[in-house]
Records
---
Amino acid sequence: MSHTMIQNRKKKIGVWKIVVYTILIAGGILTLAPFLWMLLTSFKTQVDAVAIPPTILPKRWVVDTYTTLKDKIPFAKMYWNTVLTSFITVAGQLLLCSLAGYAFGRIKFPGRNFLFVLCLSVLMVPTSFYILPQYIIIKNLNLLNTIHAIYLPCLFSAFGTFLMRQFFMSLPKELEEAARIDGCGHGGIFLRIMLPLVKPGLVSLGILTLRFSWNNLMWPLIVNTSTTKMTLTAGLSYLQGQYLADYPSIMAGAVLSIIPLIVLFAVFQKQFIEGIALTGIK
Amino acid sequence: MKKSIVFILAAMMVCSCLFAGCAVPGNTSTDTATQSEPAAPEATATAQTPAEPVEIHYAYWASPMDAFYAECKTAFEASHPNIKIILEPTAWTEYWTKLETATTGGSVADVFHMNGVNILKYADGGVLLPLNDYIGNSSVDLNNYPKAMNDMYNYKGTQFGIAMDYDTIGLWYNKTLFDQAGIAYPTSDWTWDDLTEAAAAITALGNDIYGIAAGFEEQAGFYNTVFANGGWLVNGDTFGFDDPNTRAGIQCWVDLMKAGYSPSEASLEENASYLQFMAGKLGMIFSGDWMAAYYSSADSTVAAVCDVAELPLMSNGARASVIHGKANCISASSAHPDEAWAWVEYLAGAEANKRLGEMGIAIPSYMEYSSLFFASYPQYNMSIYSKAAEEYSYTYPASLARPDWMDIVRTELQKAFSLQVTVDQACDAIMDQLG
Amino acid sequence: MRKKGHNTQKRKDMAWGYGMILPLFLGLAVFYFYPVVKVIYDSFFNVGAFDKRTFAGLENYKNMIADAAMWKSLGNTFLYVALIVPFTVILALILAELLNQKMKGRDVFRVIYFIPTVTMTVAIAMMWRWIFNGDFGILNHIVGWFGGSSHYWLSEKPIALICVGVVSVWMGVGLNMIILLAGIQGISASYYEAAKIDGASPVRRFFSITVPLITPSLFFVLTTTLISTLQIFDVIYMMIAPKSTALVDTQSVVMYFFRNAFEYSKKGYASAIAVLLFVIIMAITALQMKLQRKWVNYD
């Protein structure tokens, strides 16, 4: 009897697995399609890329697009700018947001709720409204057309603060109390106890920030003028043209630009998942 | 929490009132500051070391013309050792947001590109340098450029820009489809009735092939027929959609739609007319000269079998083509207007225009060199484009008072082109909003 | 004595609290609070191109109340919220749970689902526009197999808005999945092991362990998705050409705001729209903050 029960259970698990895999594979195809589209378009000719009816495979495969990209835009320089600004943005946000997130999530101080809502209010105004005031501020700081102009406003994130606050808040009180008995102050609790435990939060904020800063289009174009001070996504938009975009070049540039992100994620996701399983917070 | 929100709102109101006190003078001071601030460090620098070249920043939207500007920069700097040109391209989609932000922020480039839609706003805003005196004291002769192009960049008697290139409209056709339908190719004597007949014959071929693209198009569409019909669109702050001639110039397109000689409006929006033409699905299409580069490309199925003719005559025996082109303008806040002018003068001159034509990128606005561009496409009858510019071109319409007029016109007329309302109903609706 | 200790702790808390938020707030004040204040200030002026302004009092607000196009775009925005927020959050949650299970190929799936968040929006738009294309799109083919009729999905009235919603959900799921997955990592494996011993089904595990224990992340995802959907703009811009017939029926309030600010040079009026949106978002967020006490489990 127990034997059939186990078999039933195994059958159930088998069915469950099939359901899960079906969902994941179907979703995966839908998810990967634009990336494949991007990859295939990068091997098409400009006219082939917008042909009617659309074709999936290139009529003739063009590899030149990848090699001529550096003649159309200062590709290497733009790539470096993207890496640099993204790195600074991620590092800055992780630092500032985890500090403020801890304060909002774990410390009681007067005006905390007010200040937190004030911080959130930043998210409630359409981003395009920030363009002109921020431009004038950057100009007054004498930073127009510099790399600093690209990342400076992005260092301060209400979104990231909110995210980190949620992660800090979900840690149990007992941890803090135990540390306090051991004579730990806020600095010690934050650095030695809490910060390692919110690693998943830090990693996901890092990923989201990296993605945002990698793809930030409008702001670098507004605040910087020379092509050598541009990030890659912004630089690729030069190929968009007024009438017919140079889609193959844009896609080729995009493919080259996101491969490191994918690799980075592939490496990191394993890291952050296992790092946590060991600590087991709850 | 509720309290704190009320608190924030109140605090912001108070702040905004406080700002009311300081922001207004603050803003006016940035205006004056714009003229001196960027200038100050450079001016002192040039005063101390006169050998240091003056930097002229040149902003434009990225296009196939980038290579041309790079050549001009090299040639210009060789003959003007005291000036250094800094090229600043921006993507077309962000160009206008950026230009306006930089102008408002007081750090716009010395020389920048302008188009027919935006010139009135910039000229009226007082942010452009008047060029009349510079033109008068130089070798530039405005008679070398199409009159309609000069008019476009002339605001209340002041010239604010000199055209770089121009675009007019022609009638492209697919010879294969004409042969299959057994009709003669378009000629300069063609009338709108001839066009309708040809469209009917080609549509009759079936197989998802249509005679013409008759969807809602502005520059490459009803603007041309409205002007040819003796109608008008904008004059100062009044609009011409009550004029029966204007309505007739729109009606002729909607008639083609009704007869089923064109893909539907929705089809043309989702699959651009020029792509359908390049795929060999359309017999005829109104297109600007810039499309020749795409129609002739290796992957265009019609490259070897298409050609271009003059636009057809309307029933009154007239024809018209809208003309448009970009111009170079100088910022009123430029610290080096003389050097900026030298660059504009060079770009407007014979040497630059000749080179632009030879490179085959756009029609040089200097009419003497227009034909050089056409030599890049010997297989097509491209000279109709310069004929249009010289003989029957109309300035691209623009409105200062109602920058939203084009959106209103499009919203309402698209309903007529999708056959949901009549042209009269659509025009009435337009006049209700613009009248 | 005890009171004194309590007081020093309070003072310490204050010092640490303010000290830790200070760097962030300095930056926010310079780059964000000032612009927010300026939006409110500008809404009382007629601001033309190049910041030319005259005082307008409440005129912008009066015009706004009478502006049918503004209300239409606000209505569209709420339709987007109703469509996008529930689907994005629920699908992200399910996906996060599935990708948390021990199974073969899990890492590969995680990477696959991450890819759209870094894929260029131009490519995403091109592909989806092709799917929905009225003449050559795959969707019409599929609908055809089931005997349905063809549509110009992105040009027809109610459908176009739904199509934009679908793409928006598709784009948002991967992002929120990452946050929720991180939240699930914080749940101790012992809960799941205990459930396994009890023989709880995966569905029950999901509802009785995962969902209640990741409410802080869920609250974050819900709040930020709601705020960003109320400001929906990019997806509409890339899916619906600015010259489409469907524009009026798909335009969101931020899109309408953008056109007023940058295309019609009516920055004062645009500011009034932004203030209205600000108040709406603020009210909804406040409501959420209040309601969270009922369902978000912080400890």
---
Amino acid sequence: MIINSRFFNRSELIGFIALAAILFVILPLTLDVFRLNLVAKYLTYAFVAIGLVLCWGYGGILSLGQGVFFGLGGYCMAMFLKLEASSVENTKIQSTPGIPDFMDWNQITALPLFWQPFHSLTLTILLIILVPGLFALIIGTAMFKRRVGGTYFAIITQAIAAILTILIVGQQGYTGGINGMTDLRTLKGWDIRPDHAKVILYFVEVVLLFACIGIAQFIRLTKLGRILVAMREQEDRVRFSGYSVANFKIFAFCMAAVFAAIGGAMFALNVGFMSPSFVGIVPSIEMVIYTAVGGRMSIFGAVWGAILVNFAKTSLSESFPQLWLFGLGALFIAVVLAFPNGLSGLWADYVQPRIDRLWASRKSKSEWADTSVADGAPAE
Amino acid sequence: MSDETKQGLQSPFRRKLLMGMAALPALTMLPRPSFGAGPATSAVNTTGLAVTDTEVTVGILHSATGTMAISETGSIEAEKLAIEQINAMGGVLGRKIKFIQEDGASDWPTFAEKAKKLLVNDKVASIMGCWTSASRKAVLPVVEQYNGMLYYPTFYEGLEQSKNVIYTGQEATQQILAGLNWIAKEKGAKTFFFIGSDYIWPRTSNKIARKHVENVLKGKVVGEEYYALGSTQFNSVINKIKLTKPDVIFTDVVGGSNVAFYKQLKAAGVDLSKQALLTISVTEDEIDGIGGENIAGAYACMKYFQSLDNPNNKAFVPAFQKMWGEKTVIGDVTQAAYLGPWLWKLTCEKAQSFDVDKIAAASPGVEFKGAPEGYVRIHENHHLWSKTRVGRAKLDGQFELIFETADLVEPDPFPKGYQ
């Protein structure tokens, strides 16, 4: 299945090693736990961004509703943690002890049926993958089988994001409403709040992130990845060649959904919090922006986009509490206008050629010609 | 406006005189504003907070951007004013208050992140902050985990009490019950129609109001409707009001929705000078957006109005407007936010320490006689004893005080019989 014999070409290998070194070694050594935990929060968006590279960058399916899947994954995790935090002992003060506090405020006296599976961690982990995956499958089947695509698909995903927010906010007895689920404390008795737990969670997350990068890279290199690109460029030709375009699109969309959901679940664990403000239209668009800033054709670029944009958000808002949103807006406009392929495009255009030249001066000429083609088009 | 000038501030001289009078008790407490004369840092700070010999750092955490900015700006301004005034009087325990402001951006997880930053990175001695219940719920676990001190200004739903929080606004029973009693007695009201925004505060407030109406006042709730935050279509509920003809419309619609609600109410021909309407969510700040002509005649039930006639308030309002502009209006929450730094200062002086544990333990019983609302005292449950007042909205956007409770009302965040 794998067309290219090497899993990473040279420039990707450099990117991979650089990212791994920074995330596994440099950041944990240099940052205090508070900042490291913030990086962990940024990285949860990197999962979404990787999914978007697959589905938008390669498959050409622009989804403006990734917040839905991020939210579903996050809520599944949060429901498990909330149930554990709402033991009878912790909730003695309520009229019905043993159920989450927001249910008690809303005069619900028994745990609803759909909350029951979240007593079990195994089931929860399965549901984190299955719920968003199935939901994406249903949306994807309904849309792509009818050949709804492009702008219409983007609008519909956005509508779904809006609907889900309204549903969560409206059903506050079952979901915590606009407050979301707060005060998440332990995972199977292991306190997720102290510093050492944050460090462990950070490493778990980075490992998961690299697993997702690996899967995405694998998909890219297989025939499947080629078909995705072909579909993006000329959908009809692929269809006339006998491929079922809809099935490939559904697959890419489902993968993106599952990645987003893993990010959401890690978010709930790292931040100890889940709320409808990650589900709606604005966060969904922000997720697309991370990907665009990083470069929608590049898996590593997307990860960097998610980290850097969120870092800018934090540091700008700390330095200029009143004006930071303008600064952030200007940053987006500048990046998109000046570098349409995002940061990774910038890298490929300006930095990579220099590295190649340095490399080539040491190596024989024939090898230089061989790799430069692949490096010039890191997208495909 | 002319009305108001006649009532209180006839001349600049009188204004100055009143300001001087209000500052008088404070003068005796700390005679000169020189910093560094307080007790040794090692004695007042045993837990590594950001306290030096001359300075102490606190955090301000509100939304300066996003949908809540319009409401929270007043709180930020009030807190900065209080800090400036405290510094002018010599600071806290001989130390000048330095503040670090962070933006919660109307986004609850951002609030949690920034609260953590303030406590872990900046080691602030206390945080003045949060506005919506959602932001408080997000910040609460952080403050409890890192043992911070939060002064929370908004009137809220109750059902909460924490060692690490001082609630300077009213909890639901404090705010609602006196107002309902008053309107039942004054207007002979028997039937009530509840309209609220759909989240925890209106729902809990209405639950308490319903129990009180049904069990204590022996009245009837003829309708209860909720609208999503930001909703602007109230025609169907206005039709229902016209059909059921309740004695009182009881509303806790929040934020921008109020503008649409009162305009549509007026357009539908509901005359608030005849139809009694009691709101617990409209302050002077909201009327700024609604327009005085659309809401004149409505009753509001809370603890503070800008027009209150007492020496403290007569000094507070001009000081606030001098700092933030002549046109600035001051609502209930803004005043409650102003209490935060003052209560913290007084508690520090009582405890002779900045340590959070000592502050938490020393808080009950701390009283602030310079409060614009009159007088407040911290209860054992970390809420404030305060009076409840009913005001009637006037055309100029101010409230006219109609009724106030004779005594301070006890805060009761876990009311028996109302849950």
